[in-house]
Amino acid sequence: MPRKDTSIDLILVNSFAPRHRIASDAALENGLAIIRTYLEDRDFIVYVADEQRVSAVEDGVPTWLLTVLRWVVQLQGNPLVSRFKSLTLLVMLLAWPLQSITLAYRQKHMDKIIDNLATLVTTDHIPFVGIKVWGGAPYAWSKRLSAKIRALSPETTVIAGGPHVKVYGENMLAQGEFDLAIMGPGEEVLEELLKLRKTVPTKVEFMALVRHTFGPSPLIRTGHYSESGDYYAHTFIIPRYRPADMADKVWFHTLVDGLGCTWNKCAFCSHTRQSIHYTPRPLEEIKAEILAMTSRGIAFFRFSSSETPLAHGKAIAQMVLANGLKINYSMFARPAKVSKSTYEAYRLMIRSGLRAVFLGGETGHDVINDKIMHKGVVRKDIIDTIHCIKLAAEAEKQSCQVVLSMIYPCPVVPGVTLEDVFDANVRLFKEANPDTVIVNPPGVFPGTTWFDKPEEFGFTLSENYVYEWMNYEYSVSKPVEFWSTVNYKLNGMDMKEMLKELGRLNREITAMGIPINISDDYLMMSQAIGYNSQNDLFDFKKNSFVDILSGTSPFIKKITQRMNERSVDLAKSNYNQTDTASKQG
Question: Where does the Radical SAM core domain start and stop, copy by copy (predicted)?
Fold first, then answer.
């Protein structure tokens, strides 16, 4: 049956989990909005399906069940209950069946969304579905969606993209669960695919054309992930958010400030798959995007590059200040050998609205950071950078908080024990005093030095290791010691032992009065509504954890409303700018 001219060319789907995993899961979805904007400007019709919203975690679950489960979760955190081990165990036993029933309702609701999308695709003969794939439960949901669509509409091409593809690449297609995958920016290659599809009557002929055009692999590498480093992604697109895109969302926008990494040598990091050196985005483009966002009431930004070098960060800050722009933003940074110019650069960035920095430290042991992590920094750099940011913030009479990211347990070298690394990490935390710490277990990801030479670093990987990691779900709802495990070992430790060791470090961190597992984007936004002290952060974590664990959203909904109101107020202060932001539909 021929398709109508006004019918949909492409459905873009944001995959999602049954529960929030972090409080900022429901941030504005910039990636899909960018693709839609680009393709609509070229007369394609694109529909975005995005169920990742603040209160959507409650959809499909009876209100009475959520109320009871929330009460039980709050009871678990009651100091009077936690004082008695037997009472704590009793409450946990009460919570488990409620959790299982709640998740069953959510699963049924998520399956209904799959059915609805598959029916839409089949009824309207939609030729393409693109899925932004996240790890864990969203990946499992994406596979079910793909299978349903391909069963009901065999002529539809299902394409995977997003963060999970960037990490796992060709492994995403090893079991044929998607027709194609795009590793890197998707808008330009999707335009090419849409045009190719119109030239042939069947999917079989289309796939033959794809192989002829892009090569035999169903994985299409684009932009900074392509082997040449310049395949497609010739322009940066400013997304047009619609009211529907912003409903029930946390209003911060992920802004592409550059591509690549200046170092790009870390042994553990999947960013090493990128084939170009760091490339900063032109300042005029960044300015235009900021103005476009503030015209929609969005004044909170998260810079997306894996590192914003000081020189580029300083240049952005100068542009922001020169144009009188009022924004708040967070960014990723590398520890630096601190000098007066470093201090002045951070002062300038904080003056321009920098409110949180995500700093990759990995370990407090210099030998391990050198020989194992290939990080290119020493503990003094980490400590000095954190102190520099704090001093710069104090000088500017502003708050700028630091997230320190670590990997533990980790490989070691002869003469260094894991206990040595543990002690070095603890000393680092005491001396640096970051605002929050995130500790991750040692993931061995395709395309990294650890993956290519596992034995050299003490890793033993099972035959199905990659597939297990692709499907792994981090469980923020319980202590790391109780997470599920993957079949791999580090120096004889299985994953259960690794998680137990990670939990030991987490307990040491919290005993110092440092909260764990709070992301830089939420640090940046929470400061705007008065969450400045470490006690505030502990309070935020405790209350948001109740929401996450119970599958409810009253606290996150309340602070999201306050954050969004603050975003609008801050954005309004830009309205007197002489530059006019491009109007958005």
Answer: 245-479
Q: Would you give the DSSP letter of residue 55?
A: T
* Among 10, 225, 38, 44, residue whose Cα is nearest residue 127: 10
Mapped onto helix, strand or coil, the DSSP state of residue 311 is helix
Say if residue 243's pLDDT is above 90: yes
pLDDT bucket at 480, cuts 50 / 70 / 90: low
Say if residue 5 is exposed, middle or buried (CB neighbours under 10 Å; 0-12, 13-18, 19+).
Answer: exposed
Show the tokens assigned to 221. 């590498």
Tens-digit pLDDT profile for residues 344-384: 999 999 999 999 999 999 999 999 999 999 999 999 999 99
Question: In terms of Cα–Cα distance, which of 481, 489, 431, 497 is closest to 458?
Answer: 489
Task: Write the pLDDT tens digit of every residue in 245-271.
Answer: 999 999 999 999 998 888 889 999 987
SS3 at position 506: helix
Q: Percentages helix, strand, coil for the chain, rounded to the nearest 5?
A: 50, 15, 35
d(CA 220, CA 197) in angstroms, rounded, equals: 16
d(CA 440, CA 219) in angstroms, rounded, equals 28
Phi, psi of 448 (to 5 degrees): -100, 160
Look at residue 573 and tell me whether its pLDDT is greater than 50.
yes
Phi, psi of 566 (to 5 degrees): -65, -35
Exposed (0-12), middle (13-18) or buried (19+): which is 381, by Cβ within 10 Å?
Answer: buried
Q: What count of residues does the chain have?
A: 585
d(CA 564, CA 251): 6
Sequence-distant (≥ 6) Cβ neighbours of residue 434 within 8 angstroms: 359, 386, 402, 403, 404, 514
Q: Phi/psi at 67 (nearest 5 deg)?
A: -65, -45
